[in-house]
Write a structure and sequence with these properties.
alpha/beta, 13 helices, single chain, 4-stranded antiparallel β-sheet, binds iron/sulfur cluster, Rossmann fold
Amino acid sequence: MSEPALLEVRDLDVHFPVRRPGLLRSPLTLRAVDQVSFDVRPGEVLGVVGESGCGKSTLSRALLRLIPVTAGSVRLRGVELTTLEKAALRPLRRSMQMIFQDPLASLDPRMTVGEIIAEPLKALLPRMDRAERQQRVLRMMQQVGLLPAQINRYPHEFSGGQAQRIGIARALVVAPELVVCDEPVSALDVSIKSQVINLLLDLRAEHGLTYIFVAHDLATVRHIADRVMVLYMGRVMEITDRDALYARPLHPYTRLLLSAVPIPDPTLARQRRAAPAREELPSPLALPSGCAFRTRCPLADARCVAERPILREIDGRYVACHHAEAAGA
Ligand code: SF4
């Protein structure tokens, strides 16, 4: 029997009311996350990919209850998180941590590295004595490649890559099970990106971690994800094992994203099927009827206008497209 999922997400909605000018006009609803369902298995890396504005960051924050959810279910090891009171959620915070996109902006500039990494220990393990806390901080610094002598330095004294190492140490020092990495390398130079990704992979192996790794392009997640979930306008378009997704994307939007990934082999690059033309994203406040991707999709037909595609299984993969078989042929 396969191991139960660490995280189960079902029909998750995160909606925001948006006021319109004019006294009597009712607010519009921004559906930042719209009926999203997926599982994360213990020890796996689920890559979450989509263009800016597709709901990735909102989803990340909603999973950790950093923002309220509108409807749906998020279960961590079977415990429903969406209905827990703040006090009951607190002990679970140790199990789920987040690594943020902009390392320097996410670290308090008035605190030393030692204080920054120790802060979650103080908040979540208040009974831990000072000496043990110091030991944990130093051990964590060493594991992420920082020197003990840097413990009293301030964030502005570090490069972007080193600052992200501090952010990683801060997230992992409480020994979480699940880490949501919200675009942790998009602000970094290319050479530093791969160092940080390799560090995250080493730490996963060492600590048995599970990651949700968010990125806006498929090239970044290719090196770290076991499975990939593609989001578009807050909806899941495709969830597939990494190798299958790169070899044969079934959703036209996945094909569009993949067309931006450089291929080193010129023959393969020539063989790559023409991707749909890039056009502007629709307004999230006025999504098209039926399939949200239809205004950019070369396969769109009357059914796509009338009927929203549901996520369905095709050869062990999950795709939300009426014509996925034709798109992947
Ligand atoms: S459902 Fe229709 S519009 Fe949407 S991706 Fe599939 S073919 Fe394109």
